[in-house]
Amino acid sequence: MRISIQWLRDWLQIDETPEELGHRLTMAGLELDAIEAAAPAFSGVRVGRVVKVEPHPDADRLRVCQVEAGEDEPLTIVCGAPNVHEGMVAPVAVVGAVLPDNFKIKKSKLRGVASAGMLCSARELGLAEDAEGLLALPEELEIGADLRAALGLDDHILEVDLTPNRADCLGMRGIARECSALLDRPLNEHLAAQTAVELDAGIAIQVEDAEACPLYAARVLDGLDARASTPLWMTERLRRAGVRPLSAIVDVTNYVMLELGQPLHAFDAGRLGETVKVRWARPGESLTLLGGDQEVELDEQDLVIASATAPVALAGIMGGADSAVDDDTTRVVLECAHFAPLALAGRARAHGLHTDASHRFERGVDPTLVEQAMERATRLLLEICGGQCGPVESAGEWPSSHFEQPIRLRRLRIQRLLGTMFEDAEVERILGALACRVESTDDGWAVRAPRARFDLEREEDLIEELARVHGYDRLPQRLPSPVAPAERPPALRALRDQLARQGFHEVISFSFIDVEASRAFYPTVEPLALANPISSDLAVMRPGLWPGLVATAAYNQARQQPDLRLFEHGLRFVPDASGLRQEPRLAGLLGGRANPEHWDAPSRRVDFFDAKGVVEGLCVSVDAPLGFRAEKHPALHDGQSARILAGGRPIGWVGRLHPALCKQFDVEPVYLFDLDAQSVLRAPVAQFAPLSPYPSIRRDLALVVKASVPAGDVLGAIEELGLELVQDVRLFDVYQGKGLNPDEKSLALGLILRAFDRTLGEQDVANVTDKVVEHLHARFQATLRQ
Amino acid sequence: MEQLQQLVAEARDRIEAATDLKALDDVRVQYLGKKGSITAQLKELGKLPAEERPAAGQKVNEAKTEVAGLIEARKQALADSALAEQLAREQVDVTLPGRRLPEGSLHPITHTLERIEAFFAGLGFRVAEGPEVEDDFHNFEALNIPEHHPARAMHDTFYFDAHRVLRTHTSPVQIRTMEQQKPPLRVIAPGRVYRCDSDLTHSPMFHQVEGLCVDTDITFADLRGVLSAFLQSFFDRDDLATRFRPSYFPFTEPSAEVDIQCVHCGGDGCRVCSHTGWLEVMGCGMVHPNVLGHVGIDPEQYTGFAFGLGVERMAMLRHGVNDLRLFFDNDIRFIRQFGRTG
Predict the structure, then answer these.
(1) Does the structure show a pLDDT above 60 at A503?
(2) CA–CA separation, A145 vs A90, rounded Å?
(3) What is the pLDDT of residue A201?
(4) In terms of Cα–Cα distance, which of A445, A451, A412 is closest to A430?
(5) Closest CA to A257 of A374, A411, A126, A166
(6) Residue A703, helix vs strand vs coil
(7) Is the confidence at residue A453, as pLDDT, over 80?
(8) Which secondary-structure segment (H or E) carries A68?
């Protein structure tokens, strides 16, 4: 909302600077966005009258004008404007004047004729974006007067962001009401007087749904001159409010809307006919909107204004082209109605529209304005365009000034919510200034809000008004009573820290990804698709975190960062039969060198076992035996891919990105892991186990097995035996090559044996190793290497 | 006896000529060994008259002690120089880089969340979480934003179908918390939120922290006290000015927006604060009775406050980041700057 301070002075005295007023409004919830001057800086421009216009001797397009500008003699000024004519009152920049952009007016010669100044267009004064010819000024202005003073250009416009609850401030008078309460200064209400009815012309009104349109009023005006020019004071106010002046009739309806907040519409009576219907649209109906470029298809959810035969306007949103006023209009039907917010909710948007009228009706317009706005607009139209008016016809109920239902406001509740008491007089002053009707009761007040304040529905709303007008910053502050600090589960922080210590960088990638990426990584998942994605590469919810990590790796590799360790924690979204699973995952990526380039250590590229080692490190607190099982994953290299198991339950994957995906996503080889965050986040409390006072014995065995036997199976088999003395088994070498058959490998195992009740002897060791060798032979045909 | 002095002189020369322990030991054997030449002098004593023997014996012993001392001194000298040589040989260039795995880093959003969570944990606020694909009821209805409410249009919602949306704020976690637990309540809900908007200053995904405090005696004064203290703590400035401006959120009444004195210019006005001297950092208010009603909490018995803040904005202000998009580009040259501890 754009607020001209000068306009505001129609209702109350404003002594504050624009900055002070803006600050006060901001601190009351009407946030100041910008302060604009009504006109850019210029000086030396006066009101002039063109008294004589003669052709220029040497230029067809130029005229030589005599202009009265308050001097003893008229000034001779050469002018090229097409609309210059004798008797015209227009701005004249005299010699010495400085126009916007520091354009200095000097004595000059134009094609040989001396010119003592310049006649100006609105554009040259910075009052309009473009203009055809000179700015025509009202004839009643004093000739020779300074233009800034004559037009009140030393005005400022406060641009204020309104929250949706403050529809009452979508008119200047509402703003004035607010300022009166904030500044504790009286408001000069001046209600429009009724205009005498001289025309016997009625209009039949039928309202189909009184809930959607509780009040519809209309009247006929006849004998209007639609070509009459809008007075400058009005176009100036429209301009300052950010509305383009169009033609007198439309300008008046806009002006009254800006002044009071009530949208109005003028139909050409000749095209509308004698009947106005307010009804729901019927399927198949359509309407060409004002301007004529857009035809909208209507349905039963659209409230329309219709003639006897067809819709002529989208109620409360926009008029139709067919019934619009134009320069030849002489008879109009002026509509002033109240539409319920719910009846219009979302309809403008559904048609891709957003108008000044829809903006107001959706938020709620004071229904008592119908009468005032009708009278105000009638008076202005007759003043400007001439003519006569018919009686106001209406359907529906004329509302009372205040809501019927009083709101109970309790003294104690004010304290309960704000933490401080308010003086009774202060409560009554504030609510009174906001036009509420306030009556004392035993425990507080019964308050009836004015119709304009749809947002005042309950006690808390009134308490907010008290706090707001009083000033939030003048209310007390304190800390609530202390309680014990909240426990913060350390697990996620610890894992993040662990990864960072291992050189990983944490990334945060978008939760929505390209559907192609989703299909490439997770071909078996039909991802959850957004109905209104922002772009095709952010269209479906990620079924996993790898696409984001791989894209991030490609992004960084392309920026000369080849050595990458990345991780992310976040949700994956997997639709399944039971609905949608939103599960936290912890995923990572490794690429490039395993160790940094160093003067004393050869550098090595990361491989599967680097990734697996990280996973093992992350899983130390998993309270079930960790396992890795060779298994194919569509996104991983067939031969370097493993399921991660906790006590046999799958909790994730680790492996090398499939070469085909490397190519598809333009990334150097990388290794990935993905873990169910819940499984690794558990941090069981450590439980003590007794220590043995006896020394351990190590016995190394080299076992030859088929190369295809997974080492993990061999280690698992030893564990299966459940030998009490075996404390640990270490796999310290894997050998293939000379001395073995090509399809064989040798696994070197170190058995660590220990007892709790004695020092072990050679016989104990022999018993254990025999059992191990025997069992492995039975399971895998393993033999001791000779 | 002249011979004895000559032997000692000879031994001294040879000791000094010895360059290693082996040569030195050879000298010892030659002069002081069982068959050594000085030892042999003792055997000569028998040939002397008895009255001369003690004096002569003493002389020989003195010679032995002298030579032994010389050998010991030489041995020490040799050891010293060997050690010196070893030290010289084992010298390293201490300016060469050490061996270590470079540390990684946490995302600045994580650092910022950590800071926020730590402050509120101190006041008894526990962390709560909720789904990101949210239903219409929790994201809007229960928060007093019915269908067609003008506030919905301001949310730029991503939706999936008639009933499911990407949560546009972390406020639905308030509802989910109150559905499951009864007051007194102190929770914060950090997390990702989504708005269908993308330009220089808007990301379609960003982070918020929601806070909720419900008890029998919570007032607007508590809200102001807690948030002022939080902002001063977050920005490490005990004298940081804050101001509360009335605003509108359907789920709080009264509602406020919180501004802090611009941390860039100290309130004088600059580009960061659009020359106002103030930066808007949070929205907050007293929980609307309808919201309490939706979850079966009696608004006559309980009152509460709620707040929400944008994590990216806080991170940008704290770390001087000037472009929102950097947070989601995930350029490790950017992330690395925040280290493990922020």
Answers:
(1) yes
(2) 11
(3) 85
(4) A445
(5) A374
(6) strand
(7) yes
(8) strand A59-68
Instruction: Report the residue from A164, A482, A489 with minimal CB separation from B151.
Output: A164
Measured between CB atoms, does A26 come within 8 Å of chain B? yes
- Residues of chain A contacting residue B150, judged by C-beta atoms under 8 Å apart: 164, 362-363
Q: Which of A169, A344, A416 to mutate against chain B (most B CBs within 10 Å)?
A: A416
Angle of the A411-418 helix axis to the A459-470 helix axis, nearest 10 = 60
* pLDDT value, residue B249: 93
**Window 96-125 of B, Cβ < 8 Å to A:** 96-97, 99, 101-107, 109-110, 114, 117-118, 120-125
Chain B nearest CA to A729, separation (Å): 28
C-alpha distances (whole Å) from A467 to each of A32, A295, A438, A534 are 19, 48, 17, 40
From the number of C-beta atoms within 10 Å of its C-beta (0-12, 13-18, 19+), residue A729 rates as: middle
* DSSP codes, A221-277: EES--TTPPPPHHHHHHHHHHT-----HHHHHHHHHHHHHS---EEEEHHHH-SEEE
**CB contact, 8 Å: A555 with chain B?**
yes
Categorize the per-residue pLDDT at B1 as very low, low, confident or very high, splitting at 50, 70 and 90.
low
Using an 8 Å CB-CB cutoff, list chain A residues near B229. Answer: 479
Interface-testing mutation among B245, B258, B292, B305, with chain A (most A C-beta atoms within 10 A): B245
> Taking the mean position of all CA atoms in its chain, how far away is CA A720?
61
DSSP A537: G
pLDDT digits (tens, 9 = 90+) for B266-299: 889 888 888 889 999 999 999 999 999 999 999 9
Taking the CA atoms of residue B326, residue B332, residue B336 and residue B340 in that order, the dihedral angle to the nearest 10 degrees is 100
Q: Which amino acid is residue A714, in one-letter code?
A: V
Burial B182-200 (b: 16+ CB within 10 A, else e): ebbbbbbbbbbbbbbeeee
- Is the Cβ–Cβ distance between A56 and A111 less than 8 Å? yes
The per-residue pLDDT for A139 is 86
Instruction: List strands edge to edge, sheet with A579-591.
Output: A505-506, A564-576, A579-591, A670-676, A649-657, A636-646, A626-630
Chain A closest-CA separation from residue B132 CA (Å): 8
Query: Among candidates B143, B144, B212, which has minimal Cα distance to B172?
Result: B143
Average pLDDT of chain B is 92
- Give the pLDDT of residue A786: 75
B contacts of A573 (beta carbons < 8 Å)? 132-133
What is the least distance, in Å, from the CA of B58 to any CA of chain A?
60
Q: Which of A335, A325, A186, A332 is nearest to A257 (CA)?
A: A335
Looking at the DSSP bridge assignments, the partners of residue A76 are A66
A236: β partners: none
Higher pLDDT, A552 or A274: A552
Q: Got the DSSP string for B254-318?
A: EEEEEEEE-TTTTTS--TTTTTSSEEEEEEEEEEPHHHHHHTT--TTT-EEEEEEEEHHHHHHHH
CA–CA dist A45, A120 (Å, integer): 9
pTM over 0.90: no
Residue B100's pLDDT band, with cuts at 50, 70 and 90, is confident
**Average pLDDT of chain A, as a whole number:** 93
Which chain B positions have a beta carbon within 8 Å of A582's beta carbon?
Answer: 131-133
Which position has the token pair 């191990």?
A772
CA atoms within 13 A on the CB side of B99: 6
pLDDT computed for residue B2 by the predictor:
63
Interface test with A, best of B117, B218, B219 (most A CBs within 10 A): B219
The reply to whether residue A27 touches residue B151, judged by beta carbons under 8 angstroms, is no
Identify the residue among A165, A166, A434, A463 best suited for mutation to test binding to B, counting B beta carbons within 10 A and taking the highest.
A165
Give me the residues paired with residue B172 across strands: none
Contact predicate B211/B282, CB 8 Å: no
A463 chain-B contacts, CB cut-off 8 A: 253-254
